[in-house]
Write a structure and sequence with these properties.
Length: 179
């Protein structure tokens, strides 16, 4: 059985009530670098996105889940499975925890762990991968801690503020143990 409930957080589907939070997060330029966003989103655009959020991952190739604090139900951020490829049984994973004070408290690691469990057990994925900028050390450590292996470094992959950054590829293959 796939559980979307951890010790600290739970994951849930997007709701219409999440529009303001989604609007704030998607338009926060601090996160544009990791999401490859280049322009702001209107509330109307995000409302249309929420209207389609119920669509199946097999149809839209993406699943975004809200990360909610278990004790207060506060919305902390999102975890996404994206580029879902059912033929090759893989998907990318992305994570954002909005507030600085909510980071490094175990919320992100639990969200990624629960999402991976869902991907492997409910969707039958063989592997999940993450793309992380080389200088994003908290994310590098998070994926390493969860058993993702760095398999590539994409040189000069993204341009940020006029300078190129390397992007690391982390993969976690179900049942693969490198020891």
């Amino acid at each position: 059985m796939v559980k979307l409930i951890g010790n600290l957080i739970y994951l849930r589907a997007l709701e219409y009530e999440d529009l303001d939070f989604l609007y704030q997060l998607e338009n926060d330029t601090r996160f544009w670098e990791i999401s490859n966003t280049t322009t702001p989103y209107s509330k109307a655009t995000l409302r249309r996105y929420l209207e389609n959020a119920h669509r199946d991952i097999y149809d839209v190739k993406q699943l975004r889940l809200c990360i909610c604090k278990k004790d207060s139900q506060a919305l902390l951020g999102f975890v996404d499975l994206f580029d879902f490829d059912p033929k090759n049984k893989r998907a990318g994973i992305g994570l954002v925890v909005q507030q600085e004070e909510d980071r490094n408290k175990g919320f992100g690691i639990e969200a990624v762990s629960l999402c991976c469990d869902y991907g492997y057990n409910a969707l039958g994925l063989h592997q999940i991968y993450a793309n992380v900028h080389e200088d994003n050390l908290p994310s590098v450590r998070l994926f390493q801690k969860l058993g993702f292996e760095q398999t590539a470094c994409k040189q000069d992959w993204t341009m940020v503020n006029g300078k190129y950054k390397n992007e690391l590829l982390f993969q976690k293959i179900k049942g693969y143990d490198k020891s």
